[in-house]
Amino acid sequence: MGGAVLNQLSVRAYGASHGSHDHGHFQVLVGLQGVLELEMAGRGQCLGAGQGCVVPPGERHDFESKLGAQCLVLDSTSMGWASAPSAPPAQVTHLATYLAHACAQGLPRAQQLGPALLLEAWQPEPGTVPRVRRHIDWDQLQRWAASRWSEPLSVSDLADQVHLSTAQFAARCRAELGMSTQQWLRSLRLEEAREWRRQGLSVAETARRTGYRSPSALTAALRRES
């Protein structure tokens, strides 16, 4: 995430889904009106007024609201969000309402300071015992994943293996490995496939062992990354 820091606040209305997507920055949402249905890494949740979530960089997600919803949205490259809780404490509600008003009124000072205030308010209350940052043994996790390439393997499966939420795992992957969870999974599969091919295994058998849907899909993936 090189270049200028992105910290942009906006108020967005949601309706029918436009399809799943991802982006290279954190996206922080706080519900203002209605209920927003969110699917992230294969898991669903609903955001009502005052509820929020952090979508990590590179995480595939989809939004939909059958009756319409409005949210305060922060698009940010600040790595402070990598260690933020997945859901906000209660004090975020009033701040989000004010920041939404500031966006609607075009108040420049509030919009400038709002992202830092939102991150500060999202943190645990002073005096609470901080959670110990769980260590991830990436080499061990890679070996575990490699033994299951023939099975459907999702980001949530990896997160469960290290006892983290998908959002926490995705943020740690970005912070510690410099890539999204999907990019990391893809790189592991490709490296495993290259090793099998170096050993003389056929394309068809390599595709089967590494979980590609067809030999042509594996060939195309290898060609893209060559």
From TrEMBL:
Transmembrane segments: none annotated. The keyword Transcription applies. Residues 139-226 form the HTH araC/xylS-type domain. SUPFAM superfamilies: Homeodomain-like (SSF46689), RmlC-like cupins (SSF51182). The keyword DNA-binding applies. Keywords: DNA-binding, Transcription, Transcription regulation. It comes from the Bacteria. InterPro entries: AraC-bd, Homeodomain-like_sf, HTH_AraC, RmlC-like_jellyroll, RmlC_Cupin_sf. Pfam families: AraC_binding (PF02311), HTH_18 (PF12833). This is AraC-like DNA-binding protein.
